[in-house]
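ok, trying the design again with the full structure, not the truncated one.
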C-alpha cells in the first residue's frame, strides 16, 4: 500500500505557510464548513485530529494494541471538550 503521508505533509505545510502570513483578525475569521462554523485557526487542529482518530479506528479492528498516542492528546482534548 502506498503511503499518503508525503501528500498530507505537503498540504499541512502549505496550510501553515499560508496562515503564517495572516494577521490575527484574519486567522480568527469564521469559516463556514459543512459541519460547523469555525475560526480559520481551528481548521488545522480539526484536520490533524481527524488524521489521528482515523489512523486509530482503521488500525484498531486488526491490531488489538492500537492506541492513540500520548502526543496526540493535547490536540484532541480541547476539540472534544469544546463540542
Amino acid at each position: 500500500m502506498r503511503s499518503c503521508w508525503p501528500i498530507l505533509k505537503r498540504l499541512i505545510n502549505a496550510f501553515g505557510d499560508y496562515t503564517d502570513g495572516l494577521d490575527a483578525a484574519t486567522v480568527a475569521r469564521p469559516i463556514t464548513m459543512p459541519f460547523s462554523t469555525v475560526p480559520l485557526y481551528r481548521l488545522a487542529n480539526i484536520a490533524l485530529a481527524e488524521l489521528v482518530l482515523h489512523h486509530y479506528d482503521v488500525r484498531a479492528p486488526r491490531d488489538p494494541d492500537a492506541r492513540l498516542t500520548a502526543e496526540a492528546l493535547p490536540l484532541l482534548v480541547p476539540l472534544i471538550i469544546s463540542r
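Keeping the full-length input from now on. The chain has a mean pLDDT of 82.
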